[in-house]
Amino acid sequence: MSATVHAHEDDHAHDDHGHHHHKETFVTKYIFSQDHKMIAKQYLITGLIMGAIGIAMSILFRMQLAWPGESFPVFEAVLGKWAPDGIMDADIYLALVTIHGTIMVFFVLTAGLSGTFSNLLIPLQIGARDMASGFLNMVSYWLFFLSAIIMIGSLFLEAGPAAAGWTVYPPLSALPMAQPGSGMGMTLWLVSMAIFIASSLMGSLNYIVTVINLRTKGMSMTRLPLSIWAFFVTAVIGVISFPVLLSAALLLIMDRSFGTSFFLSDIFIQGEVLHYQGGSPVLYEHLFWFLGHPEVYIVLLPALGITSEVMSTNARKPIFGYRAMIASIIAIAFLSTIVWGHHMFISGMNPFLGSVFTFTTLLIAIPSAVKSFNYITTLWKGNLQLNPAMLFSIGLVSTFISGGLTGIILGDSTLDINVHDTYFVIAHFHLVMGISALYGFFAGVYHWFPKMFHGRMMNKNLGYIHFWITAVCAYGVFFPMHFVGMAGVPRRYYQNTAFPMFDDLTDVQILITMFAIVAAFTQLVFVYNFISSIFYGKKGPQNPWKSNTLEWTTPIEHIHGNWPGEIPEVHRWPYDYSKTREDGEYVIPGQDFVPQTVPLQDDEEEMSH
Length: 609
Known about the structure:
By secondary structure, the protein is an all-alpha fold. It contains 17 helices and 2 strands.
């Protein structure tokens, strides 16, 4: 098999050589590019812009929660008619929450993280000239871009954007007349998501085919870096679960526009009985969460894969339990598709079903714990290089553990009843999914920045400032939120002044908001560092982190096809750091790493534990 792949690759090399003399125009190089490295940059820049919009929205509604009913000139400037005299309208509050959640979950953490690093690293780390289909890759990016434009465009509608929470449960999402945010904005939300899902499916199929078919000679599945395993399994989960959300979106469009009632039954509006009957909003919840829970791992697994790579490189140690890490990635992928019901314990679902989902939810803690313990053991007695990428990776392990522990409470059907739909849920999933995935994203950007931008390095000191303030503020926002939730404060209420028992918590809301504002402005340090480093960053060597994986064997200047001449052959797994011979000498004298392309020596055994 690998011999035929290699022969195919050599043909591909000759093809590419032919292409190379072809003069690329600005449009074919930077806009409609089919080169995976350029498409990765397109995903990255688009994801960062969407992230800035999502964070700005969160600051607006946090200000409303901390100082309800106060007048802020910024509200009137940004929200216009939705904030008369600078006081936020209740309808736009829910719309901001809805679009913030949608943008951050799908457009930043799914497409921004997976799209960037799967595209950049899969061909480079497996030794391929490009993705299996460059054209499909380009189409998947432009569909993502189109869906992002439609989602942002919905903000400027007369009736306002979608407003039903990012989960868009019926009947708010199924009845155009239900509220202002149920009109055209909701239709655009559904259209945008349908296009986004098409984009994700194209990307995922491309990643799967590339990993299976285009590995270079010697690159067996057990020699793949853990980052590639994570991207590969993430793509598999996407192919299984995204079509289910597409069906939910299409059925919802039919309920809204064509008079069906898949999700509607016995609806009364102002005493008038509507003609819908026979549908069930709980059916929509099942369809949504069948994607919604695997989605958590579609977001998390790439971040964990990046962390494995960054941590092993910067601890100068082999990753601990390589095969156990692969097994845990596969176990998480399987279990994530049979736990969706834990979002629905109080939806009126059969209580027996609740006990089944409690069991599978607690089961998924096992592979997650395996990953956490293996990271900690990798760090143990390592020669740690605490650069920004490494700090964000360690931060990810911290938030993954602290956020995961509260998941045990939410995953138990009897305990969940007390804190369901409160700020406790928000604190949990922001820590375990939002912050952890963002840390993985930042770790990846700091680590592979030289690979993306012609050998230039990001400023280390600005990276330290970015990490420490972000890390303190992330816990400053989401740690107190657990206590607000345990006190019973419901989420998605734009003010709690109607409930005197929550008056004492106003100071906590102000504290959370202050931390959130500082965290948001700290991201400007990252943006400045990122943009200035593209143009003025210090040039680094070809392999700045002294890493073993194949991407650092490609030339610093990008060429379409990655390697000039032949693709290197692989002889070992990617984690031979600080490996010594029997006499205590390093395998390559004076060098504590052994690239994958170095053949095994006579007295050397291949490690792969």
